[in-house]
Amino acid sequence: MSCPPESTDICNKLEREFVHSGEVIASNLVLNTNIVVEVIYEPLGEDGEKLGGTTPTLMKFVSPQDQVERLYPTALLKQLSTGIDFGEDADIKISINSDVEEDFWFPGDGDIKPTQVDVSLLSLHEMVHGLGFSSTWEFPPDRETFITPRLNGDDDIDEDDPITFDGFYETVFDANLVHLEDPNNPNSAKRITDIAKSLNGFTPKGTNFPNVATLFDRFEESNQVNDAKLMLTHATTKSALAFMPPGSLDPFVLDTSEQEFSFGTSINHFDQDTFINTADFLMVPTEEEGVTLQAHLQRTGNNPGGGIGPKLRSVLKTLGYTVNANPPMGSTSTLQKRRFTRRNNQRKSRIRF
Hints:
Elements: H1 8-28, E1 37-42, E2 52-56, E3 58-62, E4 69-73, H2 74-77, E5 92-97, E6 104-105, E7 117-118, H3 119-131, E8 150-151, E9 163-164, E10 168-169, E11 177-180, E12 189-191, H4 193-199, E13 208-209, H5 212-220, H6 225-235, E14 241-243, E15 252-253, H7 272-275, H8 293-299, H9 310-319
Parallel strand pairs: 1-5, 6-7
Antiparallel strand pairs: 2-5, 3-4, 8-10, 9-13, 11-12, 11-14, 14-15
């Protein structure tokens, strides 16, 4: 854990809550390999708009269902028999906003205030993003009329350098997105991965460009830009996009309610209105102030899973995790409680889900 020395007390509380979140996850998933999580307590802005953010470490891997190469979280790949050497890097990097410390409530603090948010809920929410509840659909640099999956699967491209087109890369989460032409009729669902396939046809892989701007200039001249514009419309139309497991007719409506697309929020959460009062409240975009995780659990029926509801477990199973269909409250996987180290954060800022 990266934490400034003057924040020892709150970082001790954060440590406790992230350990608890690990226990909740271990009671829902069968984990056979350790997942490494790095937590950074750092300033993210005083306006309170951002409580935290998560960067899952992603790696290219061929999806077994359709043999398409996509971006997979290393937290998931570690649980599969891939033979990949993952090294010692963190699988999940989480930032918690030190600028809004007064807005955080921890179990044991007494009654939660109407303006506070429960860190036990926040930490579990961010951990689930790191497990793979994340999309790479985003605006290209300096463009706001269409969205694409991540260029070349790389979030650290120097825009001024020459670039060879290797494709637009969805995440394994994106592979299960559908557009609901009629939100009341799951048979109307159209797979979004077909749009991604279309976008990748704008030029052959291996085509060289002098820089990223020229690549997207060429893209805007192609017919494929119309599909990218259509995807932006889907991502900003309420109830237009959903996550639907293969063979299912039960689409899980995603957050597309904002008229302005926001990377890391749009598509990356369950729909607020649909799920906030259900057992799958955890992954909505806005955490309710003044409501604890335990209060959420009680008002939604005290379902098993400790906050990870049945539809969220279905998402994790679809991604590739082995899931306990009826999770006990205790852990079925061994959680190693390693004492966090304290250090000043000198890591450069990264894109965060």
